[in-house]
Amino acid sequence: MARKSISRSIGANIRQFRTEKGLSQEEMAAALFVTRQTVSNYETGRSQPDLDMLQQISAVLDVELVWLLYGKPESPSRRQKRRTAVLLAVSFLWLILSGLLYWFAVSAARRTYVTMPRILIRLVLIPSGMALLGAALAQLLDCVFGFERRMSRKLETAGRWAVIGFSAVNALLVLPFLIWCGWILIQILSGAGSIAMTFPRIPVYQVLLTFFLNVMYHDPFVYLLLGGAWRLFFSPEGTR
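^ that's the sequence the OP posted. Answer follows.
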């Protein structure tokens, strides 16, 4: 069964490359010194050409032998377009889902006075969705305009470190607060009696944390730029 499947796959590849070459089965058969029926059998998978015949076919069709066996590899531009479409779809679905969850969280908060789910959605799901969308839009611009970055190695390195630095500081500062929010939410849902609702105050840390929380909560579009920067400096298609 597997052998028949392989024969059909090779036959489909032969038919594809013959058609692209603009040859009829009769013309290809004449070039290979075989009958038209033999070529037809190859293409339909009724019979499989041996290695010598495959080499002759690849020479006649002017394609790599491995292409006859496994198909023509996808071009980088086509692969990039497919990845861009997937990334755009995922980012839009992520943001739509985040918006729906936020709407439900706000509705629930009016009835239960539990605001923690709404806060977590605004601090986690929406900024991460914006970052995904930023990466998708940057990749889309690359697909449409085919831009090539022409920057010095120093500028490229500085950009990478800036993106890594901002992301790392953001994560290290906000992660303890998010863990605390999650713990409070678990306590509320479990019906615990007294709950310490005040996050520990550490002077310098509190100032930096407040800055990043304000950005994440009120200005999530910053993460649109951050996602685009990640794609620009770290994506294989965006690097030299």
